[in-house]
Design a protein that fits this description.
- This protein is α/β, with parallel strands linked by helices and about 450 residues long.
- It is about 35% helix and about 20% strand.
- The protein has 15 helices and 21 strands.
- The strands form three sheets. The protein has a nine-stranded mixed beta sheet with strand order 7-8-6-9-10-11-12-13-14, sandwiched between helices. The protein has a seven-stranded mixed beta sheet with strand order 19-18-17-20-16-15-21, with helices on both faces. The protein has a five-stranded parallel beta sheet with strand order 3-2-1-4-5, with helices on both faces.
- Helix 1 links the parallel strand 1 and strand 2.
- Helix 5 crosses helix 11 and helix 10 packs antiparallel against helix 11.
- The longest helix is centred in the middle third of the chain and has 16 residues.
- The radius of gyration is 23 Å and the shape is globular.
- About 55% of the residues are buried.
């Protein structure tokens, strides 16, 4: 745990007792603060009480007695309308922070010689893979590395800072909206595409939240495959900031990446042997990991070893098994069309399982990739709308995951050639599953039930 100083003996309101909220409360208490907790969930309040925290109904509390509000990333700061705790805090001038801001302040309180280094990663798609990849490469190079934030472990639950450590932290737009002093040594913006627009009041607000990662950063690593990334890089360059741009689209950049390799200040780096870095999007992830590792002093040979040995993440272009000549690929994390594009672009042909709760635009932007789809198998609420959009592309309304996997396998096996059954839903999971992980596990289970040999033993 990372104790948070600066609030000793002062009452701090904490709303939202999910992973980040409870972790923040523990870290504040360890630093000497007096956290006061509340959540709409009775079970969450009971858990807080069981840990000895003060639980108080913040709807009737005296807010003038609080030094700060720690707001859950799940509660809106500004849009569609401010959460009621935000309105109460602002009415009496109480500052509003999140767990990433508390993490930044904990590090700022350390003597300069004792401060660890921080690599922070954000973007619309690919955050978790890039975060895990950077952490892996640094660990393989022998550094003391702690990985967390919006991935896995809440940032304040990571081990206490030491001078030699490196924190590799995934941060969301919601978390960045609640920061003012976050100053990573290396800040990464992978990409930007429309997402969470209701929470940020539109695209301008969403982009502004993402750009907050660079407010006080050292080296800025920016993906320039989209117009918002290119504009961000141009602004940083105009401000004289330390910058390296990453391109996979042919747009001139400091690092040019393509499947299997990248070219930049270190010359040509070949990672075609990296089994878990397939496709253009993973080439981009590799470029960011390479640049971050080199910025932290990792020698080229050690950085390459890390890229080549990366095992990949579950639910992100994950090969879960093989049955005969058919491979099953789990990309359940592709919850929007832009993410699904990366998977579809990685295969010349596939039997595509898609659907769920559609996001704005559905699969409209994927039309150029429909020729790669031998047949689509559609599930969930979006099955009908996706079918209409697919038009003449062969498709079936499978309804549920087990049916889709069985039908896709039978169709793929009937071709008598090497084929891919790809789950890349281009939609959220919440119509049928609590999260993308549960959806991915349902895909894995369905494939194994057909007799597929797990990838780990195939």
């Amino acid at each position: 745990m990372i104790p948070v100083p600066g609030f000793e003996g002062r009452r701090i309101a904490v709303f939202g007792l999910g992973r980040s909220g409870l972790t923040a409360a523990r870290a504040l208490r360890a630093g000497g603060a007096l956290p006061v907790l509340w959540d709409d969930s009775v079970s969450s309040r009971m858990q807080a009480e069981a840990e000895g925290f003060a639980v108080e109904d913040l709807t009737t509390a005296d807010w003038s007695g609080f030094a700060a509000l720690v707001l859950s990333p799940g509660a809106p700061l500004t849009h569609p309308k401010p959460h009621w705790t935000v309105e109460k805090a602002k009415a009496v001038g109480v500052e509003i922070v999140g767990d990433i801001e508390l993490f930044a302040r904990a590090l700022d309180a350390l003597p300069e010689a004792e401060r660890p280094r921080v690599v922070a990663i954000t973007g619309t798609n690919g955050k978790s893979t890039t975060t895990a990849l950077i952490g892996w490469v640094l660990k393989q190079a022998g550094l003391t590395v702690h990985v967390g934030g919006n991935i896995g472990i809440g940032v304040l639950a990571l081990p206490a800072p030491t001078a030699e450590a490196v924190y590799v932290v995934e941060v969301s737009s919601y978390q960045l909206d609640l920061t003012t002093s976050f100053a990573p040594d290396v800040a990464v913006l992978i990409n930007v595409s429309p997402d969470h627009l209701d929470r940020h009041g539109g695209m301008d607000g969403y982009v502004a939240a993402k750009r907050r990662i660079f407010a006080r950063s050292g080296l800025a690593l920016v993906g320039i495959d989209d117009p918002w990334g290119r504009d961000t890089a141009a602004r940083l360059k105009a401000d004289g900031r330390r910058l390296a741009s990453v391109s996979t689209s042919g747009e001139p950049g400091d690092i040019m990446a393509a499947p299997g390799g990248l070219t930049g200040p270190d010359g040509r780096i070949d990672f075609t042997a990296a089994r878990s870095l397939r496709g253009r999007h993973n080439a981009q992830n590799a470029a960011f990991a390479w640049a971050a590792a080199r910025a932290l002093g990792v020698p080229p040979d050690r950085a390459l070893e890390g890229l080549l040995s990366f095992p990949g993440l579950a639910h992100r272009m994950e090969t879960v098994g093989r049955l005969g000549r058919v491979v099953f690929v789990n990309d359940s994390k592709a919850t929007n069309a832009d993410a699904a594009r990366q998977a579809l672009s990685s295969y010349g042909r596939c039997f595509w399982i898609a659907g769920g709760r559609a996001k704005a635009g559905g699969i409209d932007d994927l039309e150029d990739l429909f020729p790669r789809v031998v047949e689509a198998f559609l599930i969930g609420e979006a099955a009908g709308p996706f079918a209409a959009r697919l038009g003449d592309t062969p498709h079936r309304l499978s309804g549920d995951m087990a049916s889709a996997v069985r039908q896709a396998y039978e169709a793929a096996a009937a071709t008598g050639r090497d084929e891919v059954v790809l789950l890349s839903p281009a939609a959220a999971s919440f119509d049928q599953y609590p999260d993308f992980e549960a959806r991915g596990e349902a895909f894995r289970a369905a494939a194994l039930a057909l007799g597929a040999v797990p990838a780990s033993v195939s």
